[in-house]
Amino acid sequence: xxxxxxxxxxCTTRSVRxxxxxxxxxxxxxxxxxxxxxxxxxxxSNAQGWRVVVVTDPAKRRVIADAYRDGFKIYQELGLAPQYxxxxxxxxxxxxxxxxxxxxxxxxxxVPVHVIYCVQGRVEEMGQVAQASIYGSVLxxxxxxxxxxxxxxLGSAWTTIHLFHEKQVAExxxxxxxxxxxxxxxxxxxxxDDFKPAKRLPARELTYWDTWGSHRR
Length: 217
Prior knowledge:
42% of the residues lie in helices and 13% in strands. The protein is α+β, with helices and mostly antiparallel strands. The chain starts with a helix and ends in an 11-residue tail after the last helix.
């Protein structure tokens, strides 16, 4: 395995918003191949309870975009965005991320493909173990889709804001009760040549060995 190529893929798969090419069509076969690859991801008890809804119809994309726009307003009104000190790395990136997120809110209906990863089951009344198992059985597949798409020149963004109006979206797409929408991935070809690794908090500061708060010497 080419570790350099693998590491580059893993370190440069970004949430793409402003650099999505809103005018270039995406071949259905390309989306299908990325989905095929994604379903090689681990799944709890080999349940393979994932389902994928690909939305290209403009009217249905508009329904999702409207739900997303209203959900974003709710997100802001509730103050759900994390707050950081000015000297925190994440605080310094806040304005750039907000600008990028706002762009997606305003242009989601223009993104040519919406991919929604779903999973069989509902988590509202489940215990922690069952919830972790259900989400753990679908989210790795969605991330694998993003990696496969990135390797083929497609950008995507991991987002869940539309879930403030999950039922509205489910009705528009014919998603039955008993199915949980886990993540929405707006997908398009990306503009530009490449992406760089993001600025992240040091792994050593976030990694504990044997005991919480204990760093390896």
